Amino acid sequence: MARLLAIDGLNIVRRMYEASPEPDSDDKALTALRYAQSALHKLLRQHAPSHVLLAFDAGGPTWRHDLYAGYRAGRTPMPDVLKTALAPWQAQLQAQGWPLLAIEGVEADDVLATAVQRWLAEGRGEAFVASTDKDLHSLIAQGALLWDPFKGVWHDAAWVEAKWGVVPAQLADLLALMGDPADSIPGVSGVGVKTAARLLRTYGTLEGILAGAGILQDRLGITLRKEKEMLYLSRQLVELKTDVRLGVSWNMLAWSGPNGV
After folding, report:
1. What are φ and ψ of residue 73, in 5° steps?
2. Which residues have CB under 8 Å from 15's CB, separation 6+?
């Protein structure tokens, strides 16, 4: 059976870099990239894909910044030494035959989501996503599985429900309710993961929650009604874009192995 391995490249690189307690330096960046490349090859050995997509953020503003100027405003920027080392390393990967995409105006998550959803919708085979990014877990509802490359474990629907208290199809609504400080997504004031999960288990969707909130006279009901517009904005921000123009065919993603390896 054909198998697409969709890899969140920056998720691996940043985790490798941040795993070292050493101060920022050129050596630290190069070491992290060597470990990241080893992790990529390990993914190939573990999953034996027929097709591979390695996605990175292109940098710069995206469609989410157009929606909300404060998006990712509080995020710590990538260290300069890592940013400097990243571009030549990516060029090296491409020269070795890795199908690498970084598309202006969208995030790597959007690229991965577009490819995975199309692959599954066309019935081409299995789709695995190598990432720990919580947003990408919503793809499990489409039939994908996520692989944690750091712990070496699968994340499926049961894992999502045990972790967040909702099914994968409700994950975007959950993230909209609770917000995401890492991306400066506001969510609803005072709503954390437990409250958000309880609301979704009771009402099913954001629309159901807001309809129910109309009769709630407690502080939560008042807050939901007051912050309805911000909630819907948050929902737009956490949504994975699945109509990105990738500019590649499945044949271009067919995996034959990197050159020289």
Report:
1. -65, -30
2. 132, 150
The pLDDT value recorded for residue 261 is 38
**Which secondary-structure segment (H or E) carries 5?**
strand 3-8
Q: Supply the DSSP string of 192-236, one letter for each residue.
A: -HHHHHHHHHHHSSHHHHHHHHTT--SHHHHHHHHTHHHHHHHHH
Model pTM score: 0.94
Token pair of 195, please? 């409250």
pLDDT tens by residue, 20-50: 999 999 999 999 999 999 999 999 999 999 9
Q: Which amino acid is at 256?
A: S
Indicate the helix (H) or strand (E) that contains 53. strand 51-55
Which residues contact residue 199 at a Cβ distance below 8 angstroms, ignoring those fewer than 6 apart? Answer: 177, 191, 209
Closest CA to 5 of 169, 125, 173: 125
Name the strands in the sheet holding 100-101, side by side, starting at the edge strand that comes first in the sequence. Answer: 100-101, 51-55, 3-8, 126-130, 145-148, 153-155
The rounded distance, in Å, linking the Cα atoms of 53 and 149 is 15
DSSP 75: S
What percent of the chain is helix, strand and coil (3-state, nearest 5)?
55, 10, 35
Mean pLDDT is lowest, of 102-106, 133-137, 257-261, for: 257-261
